[in-house]
Design brief:
- This protein is α+β, with helices and mostly antiparallel strands.
- Among the domains are: 184 residues, Extracellular Endonuclease, Chain A; 46 residues, no CATH class.
- 33% of the residues lie in helices and 18% in strands.
- The strands form four sheets. The chain has a six-stranded antiparallel sheet with strand order 1-8-7-6-3-2. Strands 13-11-12-14 form a four-stranded mixed sheet.
- A hairpin with a 4-residue loop joins strand 11 and strand 12.
Amino acid sequence: MRRLHERHISAKISKVVFLLICLPAIMLAVSACGGSAAPASEPEAGEVQKIEEEPIEEKEEDSPAEEQIEKVLSIDEIVTSFEPESSVDIPDYTGEPYVVMNDNIPFFTRTNLPTESFEYYSDLDELGRCGAACANVGQDIMPTEERGDIGQIKPSGWQTVKYDNVDGRYLYNRCHLVGYQLSGENANEKNLITGTKYFNVQGMLPFENMIADYVKETDNHVLYRVTPVFDDDDLLAYGVLMEGWSVEDEGDGICFNVFVYNVQPDIVIDYANGESHPDESRLASAEPDPAEPRDINPDAQNANEPGAQASRESIEQPEPAPAGTDYILNTNTKKFHYPACGSVNQMAEKNKQFYSGNRDDVIAMGYDPCKKCNP
């Protein structure tokens, strides 16, 4: 029994020793199995994949912002831009050289405008008529020499005709759409239309001067578009739509939108071909008084007839107003401006006063001329 017991004890000892020897091997095997199973862990792989995709998602969020970066408009986009969805009605002529349109705000788009000078002139149409002309006026395109001869250009509707009651006698001028002082364009047939002396001097010139003065003083740009308006197949434009906007200061210096009528007081014009004749009804009732040489018409035959003086006075009394110039007075700052001056839009309505008359009279009233539009 003792030996059996000793053998039994010896066998137990041997089993314990065997287990102690095998235990590290078993632990290594289990560890190895756990390591080989790690790559199959899908949740961890999913987390890695998600981290890798995050930079891609950030780039996708940035791309719409890049698309929102607005580009400077092209010249064609500017020339053809017109905000009203329908056509614009032009009021009938009532005796003033021009009428304000769209609250004096240009019809063309006023955002993303270039700050570099350019010029654009439409091709003549099948009737030889000019289309829209546009320029971003800067000092670099303004002329540095006197204007040359343009007599060789015969715009549509051109007629050579003289009247004694027209300043300089010639009824028609070759009128630049974009004035020579703004662009240096000389004998460009795409930039010249037939216009009356009154249209050229009383209508267009004040706005051209205002732009030129502003550009020279500030070295900024003015986007300027002039569009001649023809009725049907008429060869002579009924007038032009003139729009101006100072680019760098967003209209603070120059902002206007006017329609200038191609008319001449006391002259009847046929816009179909440019032919004309005196308005006999007005001229006959407004014969000049020989005592006033400035009004003498050498063709008058009945100036000394009885009743001629009374007739002249009754007609001429309202004439000083049309002969004057329109101004906007700021009763607060005591400055006076052209109606198209950008400062007028910034003026409080309670301080705004309309005045038509002589510049010297305005100054005598205690007002100083605006330094932007130089009226």
